[in-house]
Amino acid sequence: MTTLTRPPVGELLRVWRQRRRLSQLDLANDAEVSARHLSFLETGRARPSREMLLRLAERLEVPLRERNELLLAAGFAPAYGRRALDSPDMAAVTRALDLVLTAYEPYPAVVVDRSWELVTANASVALFLDGVPAHLLEPPANVLRLSLHPEGLAPRIANLPQWRAHLLHRLGREAHLTGDPGLASLHRELAALPGGTDRSTPDGIAVPLRLRTDGGVLSFLSTVTTFGTAVDLTAAELSVEAFLPADEVTAEVLRAARSPVANPRLPARDPGRGAVPDPEEDR
């Protein structure tokens, strides 16, 4: 039988401090503790209290999932729970997600979890999924893989090298900031896909997604919405990414297509992890 061995809590604290590029003095001042005490905590000469550990984690902007790991390493119970998205306690969250997705219509919007797996989407996402093979949509469908895979959106992205460089940079940064090995593995997988990279500075205010469609090349800017006050792991790790028109031509095409359209035919997620829309429910 394999026994799970966690690194000492002091070692984990040091890793998070270094990941945030802070000196012991910087963190000690920010957390209002002595640099000597922080040094003792990192070397194991002192044991942190639960309150101290949570204070340091807050200053270090440690994600909630990893805050639980810090607490467990120090011998404390986790502070943050994880509820299934379809549980009664999460009704307010699911209502909020539905409201946001509906509000973005006729512009495409998706809800993803920390691993970039698709949780749900609005009807306008069907524009992105035209011609995508079923095997890329099987749950858990990963939206970054959908974007960059040669059988996914990649052939239809007019500025693929630029968009690919943007996504890989974003994913690499998230993998570093969270220390999530799953994100690091996804980054390696996607970086190995063809498509090239263009790291030149974009001409506009942000990197656009320029997508070839039957209505011509449409240009989008993406925005991200999160639950800023979430204390539940499921809610904290959800984000809504919306693709808004970057020009009036794109806006006009999307508004013209607002007439009743079935939701994208995406397989449902596993129970308790959210579900994508059922196209029959909106008819």
Automatic annotation (TrEMBL):
Domain annotation HTH cro/C1-type: ranges: 13-67
Annotated transmembrane regions: none
Region (Disordered): 257-283
Pfam families, sorted: HTH_31, MLTR_LBD
Protein name per Swiss-Prot or TrEMBL: Transcriptional regulator, contains XRE-family HTH domain
GO MF annotation, one: DNA binding
